[in-house]
From TrEMBL:
Species, as recorded: Salegentibacter flavus
Xref: Gene3D superfamilies: P-loop containing nucleotide triphosphate hydrolases
GO annotations of cellular component type: membrane protein complex; plasma membrane
Record has ATP-binding as a keyword: yes
Protein name: Putative ABC transport system ATP-binding protein
Amino acid sequence: MAKTIIDAHNVTKTYNPEKVPVYAVQDVHVHIEEGEFVALVGPSGSGKSTLLNMMGGLDEPTKGSVIIDGVELTELSENKLIDFRLHNIGFVFQAFNLIPVLTAKENVGFVLQLQHMPKKEREKRVLSLLEEVDLEDKIDSKPGELSGGQQQRIAVARALASKPKIILADEPTANLDSKSAANLLNIMAKLNKEENITFLFSTHDQRVIKKARRVITLVDGKVDSDVQQTPT
């Protein structure tokens, strides 16, 4: 039996609760099993990024619970939540979020420095990750010297650095051309298949949606459909 790795249980997120509440997400209940490759889709304002952020512990639900690999995020102190994210969840964002003054090697290794990994072990891990995303020749390049597709692959390598169980990706292909997006998705699909990393995407991109094996559609903050499919 497959293991549930993400359980968003009756999750609600409201803004302006003291006056007229605005529901970003309303009573959403979603299970994600270990090793799934899932696209979370819906129109702008449907709540998909908000839900993704709550699943990653970047935002707290107004009501309900988020359980990641058996740990309820809403019960953790701020410091324990930061530590949990550091060791269990990788994030990939639309805007890359690389540190502009650091090289590719330093950006990827930043998480490992936070984990106090010894330098020699850290450098070996970073080189392995850059090889994984076909960028070992850009090890000393800074983000401004790289294309958008290369920057996003560096961001994926950074997300993988801590060997997370889950990668949450918010519109990761939005700023990429077709070739770069295809390369990135192929790398992610390979990691999903070979290392059983769970991927959850918030996306509008049909290229991502077609690669997913499960598509969850949100409309007005609620789950409208949840379907399995054969990726193409």
